[in-house]
Amino acid sequence: QVQLVESGGGLVQAGGSLRLSCAASGRTFSSYAMGWFRQAPGKEREFVAAISWSGGSTYYADSVKGRFTISRDNAKNTVYLQMNSLKPEDTAVYYCATTLYFSDYDVPIGADEYKYWGQGTRVTVSS
């Protein structure tokens, strides 16, 4: 079993930055791909970014490309999401997810591909 705990959410003005963290425990983190998803009020959960087990591959949703950066520190069992130039439409609950994924050349981007999920951290961007 893998446990994920997100942190770093909060209230920020448009144009500002936040860094989300997701700490994993329970299994060998280095064999797992990691992803970030978000769910805005009244909307479905959507993919934000993902990173392969070594960090060699990353993938971003078009809506965040160039503004968000996903990274990981396997020694700390932690994945990060650096969010810059935040917009009001980035307001959502952000979820960290992970799944066993041996490929280092691509990453899973569908929510149904991820087995373990965190409880989420809320990000609110004011205009």
Could you please describe the fold and organization of this structure?
With 127 residues, this protein is mainly β. It is 0% helix and 50% strand. It has no helices and 11 strands. The strands form 2 sheets. Strands 2, 4, 5, 6, 9, 10 and 11 form a 7-stranded mixed β-sheet that branches. Strand 4 (32-39) and strand 5 form a beta hairpin. The N and C termini lie far apart (40 Å). The relative contact order is 0.32. The mean pLDDT is 95.
Strand content: over 45%
* Measured distance between first and last alpha carbons: 40 Å
Overall geometry: globular
Question: Number of DSSP helices?
Answer: 0
Structural class: mainly beta
- Weakly predicted, low-confidence segments: none
The residue-averaged pLDDT reads: 95
Order of helices and strands: EEEEEEEEEEE
Q: Roughly how much helix do the residues carry, as a percent range?
A: under 10%
Cα radius of gyration in angstroms: 13 Å
Oligomer: single chain
Tally of strands: 11
Main sheet overview? 7 strands, mixed
Features:
127 residues; mainly beta; 7-stranded mixed sheet; 4-stranded antiparallel sheet; 11 strands; 50% strand; globular
Helices and strands in order:
Blueprint: E1 3-7, E2 10-13, E3 18-25, E4 32-39, E5 46-51, E6 58-60, E7 68-73, E8 78-83, E9 92-100, E10 116-117, E11 121-126
Parallel strand pairs: 2-11
Antiparallel strand pairs: 1-3, 3-8, 4-5, 4-9, 5-6, 7-8, 9-10, 9-11
Explain briefly what this protein structure is.
This protein is mostly beta strands. It has strands at residues 3-7, 10-13, 18-25, 32-39, 46-51, 58-60, 68-73, 78-83, 92-100, 116-117, 121-126.
